[in-house]
């Protein structure tokens, strides 16, 4: 999993994997070789949403863990914080995920934080212009300038929306108000009429967002890899590798 953790969209942002380790250790003691790390991760994602005030859904189980980890594959699959709406639509289309799926699944940014490293280009050099992204609320941009000064610590984090510990539709309200943290978020409102329409709907109808999010998570969870897998004993290492080796 190390390759995925070090992917450009994840590095220094994904944390607390010790929780996954604890769950895996407990499961291996109770029912060894039955529950994969991949299943634990997706169930933990569901539970994080629920505990933050979001909807619940039945998670389909039976995934296998990878035998290897590829940072290159992760970089190619994970949406970049610099992505625009066109590239995001194309990326999701490769996996037969719709525009509604794209906008709904982006709503996972209703909770959590992201690094200043991911937005300094928006603040100081959008598209190589040497100027900030014009698609930012002026007061919000001032707040981000203070959080992420030019030449400052890129690992400082800020909330992805105004309520980063509550799973709600505030994320979409922020986009409508031009207060999206990441370029890949704000572009859903400013970059394409098709995604803008869905953002507007979710900003005024939290129930519609929750319903679409559940459907998107189920569809994404149904995606299958053609590579052989296994059920790892330790989530940090494939079963045939030495314990000190991490993926």
From TrEMBL:
Residue pairs linked by disulfide bridges in the UniProt entry: 37-235, 116-148
Residue ranges constituting the Plant heme peroxidase family profile domain according to the UniProt record: 1-239
Entry annotated with the keyword Metal-binding: yes
Pfam families (UniProt xref): peroxidase
Keyword entries, A-Z: Calcium, Disulfide bond, Heme, Hydrogen peroxide, Iron, Metal-binding, Oxidoreductase, Peroxidase, Pyrrolidone carboxylic acid
Cofactor (UniProt): Ca(2+); heme b
Binding site for heme b: 109
Positions that bind substrate: 79
Keyword field contains Protein transport: no
GO molecular function: heme binding; lactoperoxidase activity; metal ion binding
Binding annotation for Ca(2+) 1: 4
CDD domains according to UniProt: secretory_peroxidase (cd00693)
Any one GO biological process: response to oxidative stress
Reaction it catalyzes: 2 a phenolic donor + H2O2 = 2 a phenolic radical donor + 2 H2O
Domain of life where this protein originates: Eukaryota
Binding site for Ca(2+) 2: 161, 163, 168
Co-factor: note: Binds 2 calcium ions per subunit. Binds 1 heme b (iron(II)-protoporphyrin IX) group per subunit.
Family per record: Belongs to the peroxidase family. Ascorbate peroxidase subfamily.
Protein name: Putative Peroxidase 17
Native species: Cocos nucifera
Lineage: Eukaryota, Viridiplantae, Streptophyta, Embryophyta, Tracheophyta
